[in-house]
Amino acid sequence: MLTNRLRERCRNNQTSYGLWVTLESPSITEIAVTLGLDWVCVDMEHGHLDFRELIEHVRVVRGSDTTVIVRVPDIQQSPVKRALDIGADGVILPLVRSREDVERGMSYGRYPPRGVRGIGGERAVKWGLGLHEYLSDANEETLIIPLIETREAAEHIDAILDVPGLKTIFFGPADLSASFGSLGQWEGPGIADRILDIRAKAAARGIASGIMSTSVEDGIRRRDQGFNLIGLGADAALLIRSIKGALEVLRKGDPR
């Protein structure tokens, strides 16, 4: 039986912790797996990652308890299908604006009759050796996650949350703020309350919510607010934060 462990945690209303992957080295994802993170999200929308690099990130997750999700570059059939065939456990749909966007993304990630995903013989089905087992559970276990990051999505959130089969949403506070006129702010005026309101609406429907944290303290706050998926940060940003913090402390006492 195909079991998406992140889907299982969401189903049980448990909190999960993950890493946003933007760099090409699969060692980053391998470290996340070794640390026991619940999920990683490989970002193909921004930056430079391509499908060849995605394969390597997915490869090091296989056989572990870590779920791998891919933020595809756009809501098109090809990137959704390819990411899932490579072996991703789900995809994040960027720049969702309407119920129709979510339904379209859902159809690309679901096999007939619920969708239009074609049957391939790639890594997801163990090169055909696990085809029937995968097909029997994939429609239920594969996560298709809309990213709530536009004003239109926020304004049409009730229709979006009513899409059949929707299990999880994820917030993009910075882009959501920008779409409401607060460019460059993580949570502009009114955005924090709007996000919490949407999270509550999703929870009332049994839909999990995810968000990135900006610090350990912020992660604790998000956990206490009831978010199910909490991103600890992006790989490059966490590296920069750690090095910058160390340098600031060390240089204060540097006699040079």
Strand order in space, largest sheet: 1-2-3-4-5-6-7-8
Order of helices and strands: HEHEHEHEHHEHHEHHEHEH
Enumerate how many helices there are, as a single number.
12
Count of beta strands: 8
Write down the CATH class.
Alpha Beta
Mean pLDDT: 96
CATH architecture: Alpha-Beta Barrel
Return residue spans where pLDDT drops below 50 for at least 5 consecutive residues.
Answer: none
Major sheet summary line: 8 strands, parallel, barrel
Helix content: 40-55%
Radius of gyration: 18 Å
Q: What is the fold named in CATH at topology level?
A: TIM Barrel
Structural class: alpha/beta
What is the count of structural domains? 1
How far apart are the first and last residues' alpha carbons, in Å? 62 Å
Question: CATH-wise, what's the superfamily?
Answer: Phosphoenolpyruvate-binding domains
Task: Choose one word for the global shape.
Answer: globular
Commentary on this structure:
- By secondary structure, the protein is of the alpha/beta class.
- It is 46% helix and 16% strand.
- The protein has one domain (5-252): Phosphoenolpyruvate-binding domains (TIM Barrel, Alpha-Beta Barrel), CATH 3.20.20.60.
- The chain is built from 12 helices and 8 strands.
- An 8-stranded parallel barrel has the order 1-2-3-4-5-6-7-8, surrounded by 8 helices.
- The radius of gyration is 18 Å and the shape is globular.
- The model has no long low-confidence stretch (mean pLDDT 96).
Defining key terms:
256 residues, alpha/beta, TIM Barrel, 46% helix, globular
